[in-house]
Design goal:
The complex is a heterodimer of chains A (about 300) and B (about 450).
Chain A (H helix, E strand, L loop, with lengths): L1 H10 L1 H34 L2 E2 L7 E2 L3 H8 L1 H32 L4 H15 L2 H11 L7 H8 L14 H26 L3 H10 L3 H12 L1 H15 L4 H6 L11 H11 L3 H31 L1
Antiparallel strand pairs in A: 1-2
Chain B lengths: L1 H27 L11 E6 L3 H18 L2 E6 L3 H10 L6 E5 L3 H6 L19 H5 L11 E7 L1 E5 H7 L7 H13 L11 E4 L8 H12 L5 E4 L2 E4 L4 H15 L26 E6 L3 H10 L3 E4 L10 E10 L6 H12 L1 H8 L11 E2 L6 H5 L3 H11 L1 E2 L8 H16 L5 H18 L5
Parallel strand pairs in B: 1-2, 1-3, 6-9, 11-13
Antiparallel strand pairs in B: 3-11, 4-11, 4-12, 5-9, 5-10, 7-8
Classes of the chains: A mainly alpha (about 300), B alpha/beta (about 450).
Amino acid sequence: MTATVTAPARRRGFSRKAVLPWLFLAPGLLLALVFKFLPMGKGIWLSFFKVRPFLGDKWVGLDNYTRVLGDHRFQDAVGHTLVLGVGISLGAILVGFLLALLLEGQARSLKLVRTAVFLPVVTATAVVGELWRLMYYPTSDGLINNALGFLGIGPTQFLDNPGTALWATMVMGIWMGAPYNMVIILAGLAGVDRSLYEAAAMDGVSLWQRLRYITLPAIRPALGIVLTLAAIRGLRVFTEVYVLTFGGPAGSTEVWMTRAYTLGFTRNDIGGASAASVVLLCVTLLLTVTVNHLRKRGDVR
Amino acid sequence: MGDRRRSRRLAAALAAAGLALGTAACGSGSGSAGSGDPKTLEVWTRSNPDSAATYDRVFAAFTKKTGIRIDYQPVVNFDQQLQSRASTKDLPDVMINDTALMGSYQSQGLLKPIDPASITGHGQITAKSWSSTVGIDGRHYGIPYSRQAQTLMIRKDWLHKLGLRAPTTWQELLTVAKAFADRDPDGDGKKDTYGMVAPGSAMNGYTAWWGANFLWQGGANIIEKDGSGYRPAMDSAAAVRTVTWMKDNLFCGDNGVLQPGAVSAITGTATDFQDGNAGMYLTGPYNITTFDTTPGKARYEVVPAPAGPAGNDVLADGENVYFGARTGKTAQERALAAFLISAEGQKIAMTSVGGHQPVVRIPTNSTLDAAKVRGDARWSVVQKAYETASEQFPNAPDFAPIKQDTADSLNAIFTYCGSDVRSGLKELNDTLAGDLKDQDLLK
């Protein structure tokens, strides 16, 4: 085998070189194919059917889509999804940026604080939800209401008032998401040329000018990554709501994915849930491509 | 040499890829051990490890008696798992799950019709119990296994301290609830107690599940039988009256009648009765085991639900034994069902060994008495409630969407205290009509 292969191998050397990396990638790609792309394709496929696992699926064309898009509960969820998705994403970027500015440096104590700040990211969301539910407890026994009590503000029904539940969920989302952004921005900050700061200090610029004209332009690539990730993750917000309010009270925190979940798993309408998910996928795809496009255009400029 | 190494590398890559594929193939397969073996039955129950331990004893006794082996799978997220098994067209042979799911399963073709006469010992189940397993086409689709009815758990020591008696009417319920909230029953000098626990979140339909007790006590129904179909009944005068009463007195009345955060509480998070913050909880008897530990057996008692204008009916539910469709082991399945409903099988399932949760609450086998088997008089309160003052959700239709829509609507009414109950319920009624129409049941 080895002897006979040598001669033609030289001729095919180039193609084999090209194939080999793919072969090494194959296990990973196969895993992605089996656990990501095939289920995704199946989901798109199912969105055109009335799904009856045992009796056999029934083709209904675009029926699931018209039903989902015409459902007023889904329409209500769009607003909540946008508020929550945009709020959590931008809030987490802003807080992440501030944290990064505060915690940049080499001192050992800073490393310790950074680790502590990063903990929310590695904590299970279910645990985080339980924690915040305790903090939001609607009487003065709750941590936050207790603190507000010292300021003379009466107990607030954070999660039980439809006017505040969405904002309370957003705060938890920001708390969970900010440290991740902080790490990316910290990496960006580490690359900022120190001499620029020194020069600026000699010119006597204000803190705001330093941020605006040196720091922000320098961490553009990091912000680009953070923004792209936000565009991908923002609208599919689910776990934060699932663990904290599950869409309640009175549907005031219902987002697109909790609605899809209820449709699929409480009402057994897998076809409708798939259609809703495909719609979200398309919107997310569009958003990501747009953000990336804007970013590249900005880079060229 | 280099080539050999390269081909070896190539083989390694291929092997890794093959491995990945193989694992994936296993994942999508049925995974049931010996599904073709006629001497083994695959049985699924919706159980956590705690109650699974009790089922283990039941099935061990069955295998000892008949020689039929049981491949037992306790499944927590039962319905999701069942859907994925259904898509492989290979169902578990026997399933034990909630009574309310029968219509849903039957409409999906997952169940085998059952002739009660073919199950040995079928006569020991009352006609009332058997009537709860009749599907939309008039045939039976389940075998009654365990039943329960909700009762009022109430703090005995708090009543005693305040010189009160357990409430028997809605009015007394409010009086006691307010006293529990205002008169410091735990004697710590702080106003930190509440009257009653309510799981009022719409998640999983909890508002409708807990609120159904009050609806029936007020003379209202969610849907009503109408010839061969059903019609929505949430716009009736009784429904408007009852929901208004609940809104005005429980959710939007004096502070402290319900625990704080009731509109977003689910059963898992509404632990105020256990924690000693709330004095009453209208709930199922499976909580007795939990409550005996905290707040403690001596501190609370089990009493019938207080009566509303139309009586004191409470929600009854429980578990049925279902046979998976097209499994081809009918004789063995019948043998297992006969054992499960026999006095011997039910007794094993009713007793707690090693502190594990019993899986039969009120036995469907009418020769047994729950209080006697358990040696616990409180269970006679539960059994009496089930036998004389209880209703089940109609389970011939697929009740899940009906329950969910009712819960969403009630939760909204109870959350917005200024809302108009009549128009809210009118809207709900239209939604329910749509749900029934989807199932071709609206007449």
